[in-house]
Amino acid sequence: MPSFRRRKLYAMLFIGQAFGVASLGAQAQVPPQAQTQVQPQAQAAAPEAASATQKAASQSASESAVSNGGSSSLNTVVVTATRRREPAREVPMQVNVLNADDLQRSGAKSMTDYVSSEPGVDLNSRGGSGSGQVSIRGVTTGVQTGPTVGMYVDDVSFGSSTAYGQGSAFALDMSLLDLNHIEILRGPQGTLYGAGAMGGLLKYVTNEPDSTQFSGLASAGVSATQHGGLNNTVNAVLNVPLKTDVAALRISAFNEHDAGYVDAVGARAGQRIDRGDTTGARASLLLTPTDKLTIRATATTQNTNRNGSNYVDYGPNGQPVEGDLTRKLDAPEPFHQNLQLYSLGVEYDFGWARLNAISSYQSINSSLPQDLTPEYGPILAAQGLDLATVTAPDIATTKKYTQEFRLTSPANRSIEWLAGLYYTHESSTIIQGLQSTLAGGATGPSIESLDAPSTYREYAAYGDLTWHIAPRFSLTGGLRVAHNNQTYEQTLSGLLVGPTTSSSATSSDTSKTYMLTARYAVTANSNVYARIASGYRPGGPNVRLVDPVTGMPVSGAASFQPDSLWTYEAGYKADLLDKKLSVEMAVYDIRWKNIQQFGSVDGLSRIVNAGDADIKGLEVSTTLRPTRNWNFSAGLSLINARLTRGDPSTDSRAGDPLPDSAHVSATLSGTYLFNLGPYASYAGATERLVSQRHAGFASSTSRPDYLMPGYAMTDLQAGIDFKRFSVAFFARNVFNRRALLSANTALVPIGGPTLVSVAQPRTIGVTLTAPF
Question: What is the pTM of this model?
Answer without folding.
Answer: 0.89
